[in-house]
């Protein structure tokens, strides 16, 4: 059936929505694809729903090719499974929670590992039942602190989430690879550039994890890649650790006056002015005091030592201490720990270690991996306006552990030896996880192995953000006139525009639309009477169907115009040839 | 792609689920279509999802034929629109409510009139934009007090809900009829018997409403129909009102002793024993005291008088007093109203009216429409163990209004004169409403008419319960072996079963499955090795694909068996003819 614009539920808007920060948001609203209902919550209008359905069809197709079966879970789920996995608490404010009329606790699921695990536990009991990969395409909820950028960071969003179940680690590797391959096929079919980066698996309790990032300046993720092929998001980047240095012959620590040097820069300037040598921030040891809030609500003050030319990276530190929440230590935290002299903090004082093993403060102390044994540092002496130099790691101070929280910089060496890395921004459009046995253990999913012994199942979890992908495609495919959809996901295949007041043009346009539809095209036919050609062309450009056919003045001569929305090319062709030309 | 059972996510169960009250619930769980997640909340397994998708495709097709366009709203919606319509309060405990991290109120939508109205208000402004009908197929939430019967009364369920928008009443009539016609086509294609009954439109604030009921003994709705074609649910049934009788010559009221007659039956027995005449319950006036709880929380005691051979019908009284909640008056309510003597209540006492106009109690009094002026009743005298006879309606007592709350009985006359009605049970599978201007007024949806004057839009609302329909089809199509799907919604078109240990049988079954798939059939192929024929046949019967092909011993001779799941017929045919036979 040809969709006639005169009756279609579509109104394009002349004004950009006031809250639109990015092109996809602005254009999807203006062109009548989506409409805001609440912060981060949208309704889908007919055009938007058509594009979404096409993306979903491609995903379903590739899931079937990967041997995955579709199921569907409710968004509303009871608390218990999430209590068992620990995520009822871990999700904090990010999860919508509610009570039913009897006072029982429910949630709107942000992700479904728990209930998929329980479903398989419910129905399966033998290694012979495995491997299994099941998935759903479903509306998920996360109570984002700052929903923004339209569909890119919403509170309701559609995801394809798949879960694999295997009896062995080798099986998990194969299931993981099958999903990873399917993701590559999906993104290729969608014409969406992607980079697969190593990701941190810690937060999900897993062993291996990769993200599919779409490189874009509006991306919220920073990732690194080397010429040699290494790619990781900054959370997963690991530092190349230098060799330790022997202590023999290293100078002993010397405390020196350093008035008015509470920052690294003032300290370096002071050192260069008062001491021999050409010091840089990299010669200093910066000590950052953080406060962790653990899941049980307890607050712990910790310190991190890192080269003075690096800062603590917000995302890396969040991952490093997850599931605890991290914030800078407050004045109150410092008051409780008077041995730490703000602006002049170091791991050591005249009387011995202040931080690290055998510390006087009892505060846990973590070091950047570059601070290897035998490296010598200028750092605080825990006395107001005094620092110490020649303080040697491993000899004069130690750590309770090494930690990857320092900022990653352009030019840092890739951990696999493939050369220096460059930094880029990307947006997560897919994520594959080897969860391992965390959820299966928490929820008791075991099967009998070949020897009749119960073994815990190992799992993977694989997500694709359907609505986020749609927005990314829109971000990537637009110009100052509007959207330009790739053919694979365009809401219609052809947009036929009848112009003028000549009945013959409208008749030709109608019959051409019917012919196109009969040839398998989805046709949007702009049959609106008394609407100027300029308005019709503007709407066609805004809506962004890639192939447009104009039926106007030439209709009398049996001619129509083919208009390529992307290149702008226009070609006059005989109407009789239009279907063949569009099919070619 | 042929779906192979050896890898499919399907486990049939031998045991009925403990909580299953009805066949659809029992069989859909046992055959691996759905799985319970919480009371009234289910997950959809691959088989169930396939059937659901087929029903949805039929609905989408007929919505397109009716000129309706699909949109999609979130389940999570802000409070404001529902506050404006009054339904934030009206829904009471039946609606799931929640707060976001900022404390803002949200709900899980039980129905979407408000936001559809606002969407159209947002985008449309002229009568030329209308008529418009838009719909969605979407998961809805209602916090049922007693979720039960599997999908038939769940707390999450899938609905198709459509909304029409017109500038005129005639337009609404046409839009309503188009949806009503589409519903008839949908139910016919689904092979689902239905009765269209007049329904009460009051609760939705509308002017006309009809329900599509599927006649079934497990239905929760009672409806009536006459031979002459009248059909209504009991809430919408209206009583045929007798002619009033002149007061001239009617006897005056007489109070008489009636010890120990607090019930209608004891009163009738007493009357027949002590007075001339052959009295029945229909000669008595029963007075029922009810307590209403209004939306603002206030409690009001009211009384209803009706012939003693009728009771107050729970559903009719609920509709009559909606949106107030109704319950029987409590002992406390009676204490507060000492003029009403329990067991001996009447509208009149020796000193004059107790109930109705100029009543001594101030309690509002409603009468059944049969209690017309001039009818003479035996009823309570508001004195312990005393009744009154010859109490004449309109002369000795009056009402504050007439009300349709009495039970409807087999044989009652249809209001349209089409003869006596019969009673039947049904389950609501569709509902069409002329909402009129209630929502448009509450939310300010107006358009400019031909004369440039703002007019309020008139609306309709049209619902079909997708998951409930699925369960009803399952209720209607099963036997003691399992499900028997109609071809239009079966999860697969053909179920091929390979039996035995002969590799030739499995090869033939595989090639036949591929041929069937190539001919356009969706094929489920039971290729499980080492599973006995008995188990495979049992599973095939339980799963209920209507056409089964058995490939077993006859394979060596190139023969297969066609098995009609519904009739049980089995026919041996040459394998080469199987596709043609199944296509025929």
From TrEMBL, chains A, B:
One of its GO terms (molecular function) is ATP binding. One of its GO terms (cellular component) is cytosol. It comes from the Bacteria. InterPro entries: aa-tRNA-synt_IIb, aa-tRNA-synth_II, aa-tRNA-synth_II/BPL/LPL, Anticodon-bd, Anticodon-bd_dom_sf, Pro-tRNA-ligase_IIa, Pro-tRNA-synth_IIa_bac-type, Pro-tRNA-Synthase_IIa_type1. Residues 40-486 form the Aminoacyl-transfer RNA synthetases class-II family profile domain. Its main location: cytoplasm. Pfam families: HGTP_anticodon, tRNA-synt_2b, tRNA_edit. One of its GO terms (biological process) is prolyl-tRNA aminoacylation. Transmembrane segments: none annotated. It catalyses: tRNA(Pro) + L-proline + ATP = L-prolyl-tRNA(Pro) + AMP + diphosphate. Its EC number is 6.1.1.15. Coiled coil: none annotated. PROSITE patterns: AA_TRNA_LIGASE_II. Keywords: Aminoacyl-tRNA synthetase, ATP-binding, Cytoplasm, Ligase, Nucleotide-binding, Protein biosynthesis. HAMAP family: Pro_tRNA_synth_type1. Homodimer. Consists of three domains: the N-terminal catalytic domain, the editing domain and the C-terminal anticodon-binding domain. Belongs to the class-II aminoacyl-tRNA synthetase family. ProS type 1 subfamily. PANTHER family: MITOCHONDRIAL RIBOSOME PROTEIN L39/PROLYL-TRNA LIGASE FAMILY MEMBER, PROLINE--TRNA LIGASE. This is Proline--tRNA ligase. The gene is proS.
